[in-house]
């Protein structure tokens, strides 16, 4: 007997089973309904709290962003200012407030330096047993100033004859200037009292103001430029003050540089030497119990002030000279304020280390120091000669002038480095400072272990060497900062670029 299933019956069974299975006990259904309601009762407040918290956090974040927006803007402005402070892309002849400030700094540096040297000479004259040092101090004041002021007057006279120097890159347009008798009398008198450098700084301020007026007048009178637009203002112009400004900046910087090397350097060594040597006289067996009055604190204080101003003058003269050359050369961007500050600090600390070690070593072996300095000078002159500089005349054979120039720069190399030829200076500078460090270490150690030095109970015997080498490496640190962040990227600091063939002997 075959078993047959009626589909209609199966459908009815399945539907009945489904309806039966869907029927839930009322108690269970009520329990499940109460659980769902409980979950909704718990979930809704949490969701509301989370929404409120999220809204509050968003509001706080928005408020914080608004609050820190000015700080962010100030930070961006500070970064932008730092970049402008350290880097310069300006190639134009300008005379800004910064240039005015630096010129005033140069005037103040000269006056304070001269005043401190004269004050030192007076105090040494009033002291007993210091007449020899007084004579040397006066000689280091008078002789360099006579030389520099005569040199400055000669350059003024040369300018009055019509300057043959023409800068094709700058396209300066200048006619022969006529100087009155009053002009000459006033300048000669000021040079006779050793104020020649100040006269030139005043000229810079005057030419800078005139150039500002002239440039504004040119823009106002001839706002349209073109190949067929005649600049009547330029055509009728008697003097190009931009040329006079740039030339005076270069000449003043060069004179100040020479002045610092022939006056400030020997004066600085002399005064530091006296400061280091006089205490040795107080503690020698001949005078074992010195009185405070014998030490002459006032004179020592004036000498220290004079030494500081001489050091500042030396460092600033190198910095301003290199900056002036960059203004004069068209293919090199001008130095920024940050670059000048870093270079000034670099020169100050390296020169200070050199001066101190020279002065200390001279207290025990002055004759040997002279031989060491002479040997360094000969080595540097030979090195400069091998570089085949062409400072005096680029198109002729090496002349007596060129050799004298090499000798002068060799003297500068006793204290600091200058790149004398248009070539990368990294390896030359590294070699120079390695030689200087070796010399400073040798002189310092020989002074420290000297029997006479060890026999004297000098207060500076222990801290002297750390101060010397710390100053040297601090200067190298500022030099690295200068080349890393502030060195103009379009050129190099050089002493004799093609546009700056202004010989010391012109």
UniProtKB/TrEMBL annotation:
GO biological process: apoptotic process involved in development; engulfment of apoptotic cell; phosphatidylserine exposure on apoptotic cell surface
Native organism: Darwinula stevensoni
Keywords from the UniProt entry: Cell membrane, Membrane, Transmembrane, Transmembrane helix
Broad class of the protein's primary localization: membrane
Presence of keyword Membrane: yes
Cellular component annotations (GO), alphabetically ordered: plasma membrane
Sequence similarity: Belongs to the XK family.
TM spans (from-to): 100-126, 133-157, 184-207, 300-324, 336-361, 368-387, 403-420, 432-449, 461-483
Pfam families: XK-related (PF09815)
Localization terms from the record: Cell membrane; Membrane
Chain segments carrying region Disordered: 1-32
PANTHER family the UniProt entry points to: XK-RELATED PROTEIN
Compositional bias per record (Basic and acidic residues), positions renumbered to this chain: 1-11
Superkingdom classification of source: Eukaryota
Membrane topology, from the record: Multi-pass membrane protein
Protein name: XK-related protein
């Amino acid at each position: 007997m075959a078993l047959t299933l009626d589909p209609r019956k199966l459908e009815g069974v399945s539907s009945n089973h489904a309806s039966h299975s869907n029927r839930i006990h009322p108690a269970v259904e009520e329990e499940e309904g109460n659980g769902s309601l409980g979950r909704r009762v718990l979930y809704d407040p949490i969701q509301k709290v989370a929404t409120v918290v999220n809204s509050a956090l968003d509001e706080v974040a928005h408020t914080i962003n608004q609050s820190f927006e000015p700080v962010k803007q100030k930070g961006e402005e500070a970064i932008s200012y730092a970049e402008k402070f350290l880097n310069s892309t300006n190639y134009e002849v300008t005379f800004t407030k910064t240039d005015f400030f630096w010129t005033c700094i140069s005037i103040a540096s000269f006056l304070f330096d001269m005043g401190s040297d004269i004050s030192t000479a007076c105090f040494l004259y009033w002291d007993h047993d210091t007449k020899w040092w007084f004579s040397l101090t006066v000689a280091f004041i008078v002789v360099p100033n006579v030389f520099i002021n005569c040199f400055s007057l000669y350059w003024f006279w040369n300018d009055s004859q019509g300057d043959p120097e023409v800068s094709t890159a700058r396209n300066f347009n200048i006619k022969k200037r006529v100087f009155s008798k009053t002009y000459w009398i006033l300048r000669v008198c000021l040079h006779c009292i050793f104020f020649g450098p100040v006269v030139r700084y005043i000229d810079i301020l005057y030419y800078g103001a005139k150039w500002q007026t002239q440039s504004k007048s040119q823009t106002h009178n001839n706002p349209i430029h073109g190949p067929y637009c005649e600049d009547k203002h330029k055509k009728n112009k008697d003097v190009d003050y931009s040329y006079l400004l740039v030339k005076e900046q270069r000449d003043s910087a060069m004179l100040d540089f020479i002045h610092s090397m022939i006056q400030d350097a020997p004066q600085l060594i002399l005064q530091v030497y006296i400061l280091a040597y006089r205490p040795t006289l107080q503690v020698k067996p001949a005078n074992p119990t010195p009185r405070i009055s014998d030490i002459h604190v006032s004179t020592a204080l004036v000498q220290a002030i004079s030494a500081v101003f001489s050091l500042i003058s030396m460092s600033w003269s190198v910095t301003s000279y290199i900056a002036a050359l960059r203004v004069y050369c068209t293919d090199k961007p001008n130095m920024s304020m940050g670059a000048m500050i870093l270079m000034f600090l670099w020169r100050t600390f390296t020169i200070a280390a050199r001066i101190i070690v020279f002065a200390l070593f001279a207290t025990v072996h002055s004759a040997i120091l002279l031989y060491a300095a002479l040997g360094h000078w000969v080595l540097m002159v030979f090195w400069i000669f091998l570089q085949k500089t062409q400072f005096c005349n680029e198109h002729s054979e090496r002349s007596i002038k060129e050799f004298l120039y090499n000798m002068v720069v060799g003297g500068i190399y006793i204290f600091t480095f200058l790149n004398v030829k248009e070539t990368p200076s990294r390896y030359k500078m590294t070699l120079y400072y390695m030689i200087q460090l070796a010399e400073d270490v040798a002189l310092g150690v020989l002074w420290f272990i000297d029997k006479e030095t060890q026999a004297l109970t000098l207060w500076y015997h222990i801290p002297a060497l750390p101060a010397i080498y710390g100053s040297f490496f601090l200067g190298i640190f500022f030099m690295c900062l200068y080349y890393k962040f502030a060195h103009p990227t379009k050129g190099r600091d050089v002493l004799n670029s093609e546009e700056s063939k202004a010989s010391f002997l012109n």
